[in-house]
Amino acid sequence: MPSTSPTPTNPLPIGSGQTISQPLIVGLMTAALRLGPQARVLEVGTGSGYQTAVLAELAREVVTVERLPELLQLAQRRLAALGYKNVAFREAGAVLGCPELAPYDAILVAAAAPSVPAALVAQLGVEGRLVVPVGGRHEQDLVVISKGAQGLHQEALGACRFVPLIGPGAWDD
After folding, report:
1. Which of 3, 5, 21, 115 is catalytic?
2. What does 4-58 look like in DSSP terms, one character per residue?
3. CB atoms within 10 A of CB 172
4. Distance separating alpha carbons of residues 86 and 60, to the nearest angstrom
5. How far apart are CA 151 and CA 137, in angstroms?
6. What are residue 131's DSSP bridge partners?
7. pLDDT digits over 114-170, tens only?
8. Going from the N-terminus, what domains does the chain have, and what CATH number goes with each?
9. H or E element, residue 121
10. Over residues 96-111, mean pLDDT
11. What is the DSSP letter of 168?
């Protein structure tokens, strides 16, 4: 007998005009980072904190950046109540990401950029991986950038739709 319960096929609203990604996309992006237990991860776009918690389960340290203070505060309270101690919360500033704590072994961007943000590539350590949706405001390709000693390698994981990344090196507000 088929299930009558709804299955989310679209991102769900979390407030402040933002959405949470489908669990399938969260899993795909997380897997693409290839995290080890000693990894330091930068997450751009804290949102509800769901992806943050997934990353915190797999990595030694997560630095998460959010441009909307109300979402950042809610996620911080939520993850503290759940006992996460390996997450550093930062409000987005004048520079994309969190360069003062770089380099990172992995960077996950939970919003779409018009191109791969050079500021984030600069924060990625050698042998690091960056996962970011790249394209137009309404449809993108999910890409993985691997940074090796010989340079950068880009791999496409498929089509996706994310809210736009706002700020320096991305879309105007």
Report:
1. 21
2. -S----S-EEEETTEEEPPHHHHHHHHHHH---TT-EEEEE--TTSHHHHHHHHH
3. 7
4. 7
5. 28
6. 108, 144
7. 999 999 999 999 999 999 999 998 899 999 999 999 999 999 999 999 889 988 778
8. 18-160 (3.40.50.150)
9. helix 118-123
10. 97
11. T
* Dist CA 150 CA 126 (whole Å): 10
Q: What is the value of pTM for the model shown?
A: 0.90
3-state secondary structure at position 101: helix
Asked if 157 and 171 touch (Cβ cutoff 8 Å), the reply is no
* Other beta carbons less than 10 A from residue 72's beta carbon: 20
Type of residue numbered 36: G
CA 162, distance to chain mean position in Å, is 11
Q: What Cα–Cα distance (Å) separates residue 71 from each residue in 31, 36, 90, 97, 148? A: 25, 28, 11, 16, 34
Per-residue pLDDT of 7-43, as tens digits, reads 445 666 676 666 677 778 989 999 999 999 999 999 9
Q: Which two tokens stand for residue 13?
A: 């609203």
CB under 8 Å, gap of 24 or more: what pairs does 148-157 form?
152/121, 154/116, 157/28, 157/32, 157/131
Cα 45 to Cα 43: distance, rounded to the nearest angstrom = 6
Catalytic residue status for 5? no
Residue type present at position 79: L
pLDDT value of residue 18: 65
Give the residue carrying structure tokens 């709804």. 6
